[in-house]
Every structure is written in structure tokens, then in C-alpha cells.
Specification:
Blueprint: H1 4-28, H2 33-49, H3 51-54, H4 59-81, H5 92-105, H6 111-123, H7 126-137, H8 142-149, H9 153-171
Helix pairs in contact: 1-2, 1-4, 1-5, 2-4, 5-6, 6-9, 7-9, 8-9
């Protein structure tokens, strides 16, 4: 059980970090509000349970602990639900949500450029689109993407390489013919 001072310190920490962590959970759960809420709440319950350890960390380490715990909670939630890892990047509303979350997190992204990039990614097909979104937008490691999509890490790297090449061509205004994907 925490002392009154420790509990007060936890709530200050919660108010300071909750918004950023919620946006990260939103991106990781691809906007599925129930999943976002579950992952967000579970992460802070873990932080509260381990507060004596977490409180001894500096701010950067605390955020890293939160981000790692959130990732574990999301993966655990998805595994428990046996959900497929389909990425619906062709849904315009979904792109707007992803773009908004990224713009809020990092003010250095110009909205117009980000929207154009999102539209170009939406034109990619199949695995190229999934791999690019999971690795570059959602921030998953190549090994995590491979596990989610049930393909090998080397296949993820190939799709990522091809997707980036197609994306470069689309953003420069070139027609992408390649293997007929775009």
C-alpha cells in the first residue's frame, strides 16, 4: 500500500503523462476505443502496482517504462482476443485519425505533407501497405510485424523496401507499375 505522498506523486505523474500515452495507445490500437481504454488503464494499473520502482526513475526512464508496458498490454490484449491484425489503411476516416494523432504528438509535421503521404500510402496494396503502416507509423519492430502478419522477418524487410520505393515514386509524381501493385 502506498503512502499518501506516494499516491499524490502517482496522480501528478498520471496527469502529466496520460494524454501522450493515450495518443500512443490510440495509434497502437488503430482507433478501437475499447482497446485503447483497456490498454491505457492496464498500463497505469501496472504503474501504480510498481510505483515504488517507477517513481525512482527519471522522467525519460518513466516514459520509456510506460511505453514498454503499454506495448506489452496491447499485444497481450490482442493475443487474448485472437484478433486478426488487419490494417484498414484504405479507410479515409482511419487515415484522418492516424494523421491527427501524429500531428498532435509532433508539431513539426506539416498537415498538408502528412495528408499527402497518407494518401500515397493508401494507394499501396496488400502487404506493402500493412508492413509500412505497422513499422513506420505504428512503430513496431520488424520482428513484431512479422509475428502479427504471420510472415518471416526477411519477408517484412522485402515488403518494406518495396513499399518505400513505391512511396517515393508516388510522392514524386511518377507512375508506379512494378508488379502491378500501384
Amino acid at each position: 500500500m502506498l503512502s499518501a505522498d506516494e499516491e499524490a506523486e502517482f496522480w501528478v505523474f498520471y496527469r502529466k503523462t496520460s494524454g501522450v500515452l493515450f495518443r500512443k495507445a490510440f495509434r497502437m490500437c488503430r482507433g478501437q476505443r475499447d482497446d485503447v481504454d483497456d490498454a491505457h488503464q492496464s498500463t497505469y494499473l501496472q504503474a501504480l502496482r510498481h510505483w515504488r520502482t517507477v517513481s525512482g526513475l527519471d522522467d525519460k526512464q518513466r516514459y520509456a517504462w510506460l511505453a514498454t508496458t503499454l506495448t506489452r498490454e496491447v499485444l497481450q490484449l490482442w493475443r487474448a482476443q485472437h484478433r486478426s491484425y488487419e490494417v484498414r489503411l484504405w479507410d479515409d476516416a482511419g487515415w484522418q485519425q492516424i494523421a491527427l494523432a501524429a500531428a498532435v504528438d509532433d508539431g513539426s509535421i506539416e498537415w498538408g505533407i502528412y495528408e499527402e503521404t497518407c494518401r500515397a500510402i493508401a494507394r499501396l496494396k496488400g502487404r506493402k501497405q500493412e508492413v509500412l503502416a505497422l513499422h513506420c507509423l505504428a512503430g513496431y519492430e520488424i520482428s513484431e510485424v512479422a509475428e502479427m502478419l504471420k510472415i518471416s522477418p526477411s519477408t517484412v524487410r522485402v515488403h518494406l523496401h518495396d513499399a518505400r520505393a513505391d512511396l517515393r515514386a508516388l510522392l514524386s509524381g511518377e507512375q508506379v507499375n512494378g508488379d502491378g501493385d500501384v
